[in-house]
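To close the chapter, one final illustration. This time we ask the reader to focus less on the individual chains and more on the assembly as a whole: which components sit near each other, and how the overall shape emerges from the parts.
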Amino acid sequence: MTSSNKHPDAPWRNFYGRIHGKTMNQAQKDYLVEDLDALSPGAVSWDINPTRQPLDMAARFKGKPVWLEIGFGGGEHLVHMGETYPEVEIIGCEPFMNGVAMLLGKIRAMQTQNVAVHPGDVRDVFDVLPDHSISKAFLNYPDPWPKKRHHRRRFVTQDHLAPLFRVLKPGSEFRVATDIPDYVRQTLEEVPKAGFVSTAKGPEDWRTPWSDWTSTRYEQKALREGRTPHYLTFIRP
Ligand SMILES: C[S@@+](CC[C@H](N)C(=O)[O-])C[C@H]1O[C@@H](n2cnc3c(N)ncnc32)[C@H](O)[C@@H]1O
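The assembled structure is written out below.
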């Protein structure tokens, strides 16, 4: 269960992943207490925005293009993108608090200025993002849920893809990286059903990382274990 689901008006949303992992060190606990509030993308929490008023994007993000990373893990890709594209603002969402603390450490070390952090479920952010407010979205190594009866828990289902489609600007990119062949299958089936168009002409394209890609912790694990990364790109027409 996500923390926002504690509000009486919040819809029931199952979250099956981990929220807490092994003990954090004192520095990581300090980052959460000291840095997180100032990095919030705005009134996402149900406690402060129970009527789900849309975020004032121009005020919060200074009129700059805003990108979205779903499930940033330890934040390698999020900070890399922030550093590579200072002219853009990037919202990262991640319910796993140890990952959030790792990201905050990286932001401090790099002094990254253009990253906003929602320490929770991206669906709470979808609720309050205006239509066509996001210019690019990243889904890197989503939880694979390998058992067939768990496939409906995967991110690439219409419950997640429909609001993602709504918040993306026409012409914007949605990138999916995964090492799981059956996840590739479901992505290629479900993402176009939500209205997106695949840019790949064939499997060759799926093997080539984006020119601005940086490898993540999960990708490193996949490579160590002999699995092949796939990089899928879709356009929101
Ligand atoms: C397999 S990990 C990959 C992490 C990172 N992207 C990487 O490549 O190393 C998937 C992450 O997605 C997060 N996640 C799962 N469902 C989510 C949701 N609804 N909103 C935001 N993040 C989510 C999980 O907490 C987990 O950290």
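The CA atoms of residues 200 and 233 lie 7 Å apart. The mean pLDDT is 94. With these observations in hand, you are ready for the problems at the end of the chapter.
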